[in-house]
Amino acid sequence: xxxxxxxxxxxxLLVLAASLAQPQPAAxxxxxxxxxxxxxxxxxxxAPEPEPAPAAPPPATAPKKPVxxxxxxGKPSDKAAADRAAKGEGKxxxxxxxxxxxxxxxAKAAKxxxxxxxxxxATAAEADDATVIAQANAYFNGMTxxxxxxxxxxxxxRRIGGxxxxxxxxxxxxxxxxxxxxxxVADGTSVAxxxxxLGTQDLYFxxxxxxxxxxREKIDLARDLSVTDVANDPGGLRISLEDRSTLGGTSKIQLxxxxxxxxxxxxxxxxxxxxxxxxxxxxxxxxxxxEGNLFFINYGRSEDKAAERQIRAx
Length: 314
Hints:
The protein has a domain at about 5-40 and about 140-314: Lipoprotein localisation LolA/LolB/LppX (outer membrane lipoprotein receptor (LolB), chain A). The protein is built from nine helices and twelve strands. The chain has helices at about 15-20, 25-30, 30-40, 75-85, 95-100, 100-140, 210-215, 220-225, 300-314; strands at about 5, 145-155, 160-165, 170-175, 180-185, 190-195, 200-205, 225-235, 235-245, 250-255, 265-270, 275-285.
């Protein structure tokens, strides 16, 4: 059922290659979101212009060797001190000089502290990152339903609004505002991109999308994805991830939370071709009851058609 396309009224299912090769009227409306999910851009994103190479530093000149000088004749007092030292007079016992030298002791302690400081800082940073990831896991795993509004910002800056509805595990719905005829529905097994105006839909496996953090009943970001960075941003925290199992290659995901990791404010998905889509969230509410028929997908079977007629009659 991967990537197949069919009309809801009638018609056989098309093979994956045919559906991906043909232009998709539905994807034309919100192509940036679909490209973020599945990486279907035909042309790669333009590469940034290389920065000019820094000028080479002037060659260092070799230091001059000091000129050796003949030792000066010692003063009488110096000779007397040398004679006393030769006879063992006035010589401190072995080890006493080191014990009585506070400068040497302080220097050694400072050196040990300097060596241990980076390791301690790195350990503290790793502990803080683990705490943030644990808080994000608790946020996602603590929700059963989620409703709210979204604004999608595509790579070209185009903005499209809509409504988001989620019921875990696996069920998700994006209803785009007019004039877009699109809706995207996940029923726990597949993701359907529906065009209400044309009566068409494209089907994908949920595992092909990088939305696992929203769809799985239990998620462990560090185990199920690859955490590449945890950082403080103005107004909140950012977790950067990579998902290597999406269709077309590795997708990069950034999750943005408030400073206490209590609310997800937006996510960004960079597809394998380098195109970035941002989904900004607002008015999120957790735990509200939602209708199960919002996540219905008609696969063209007789029982699906009957169920769809019943849903429309309600």
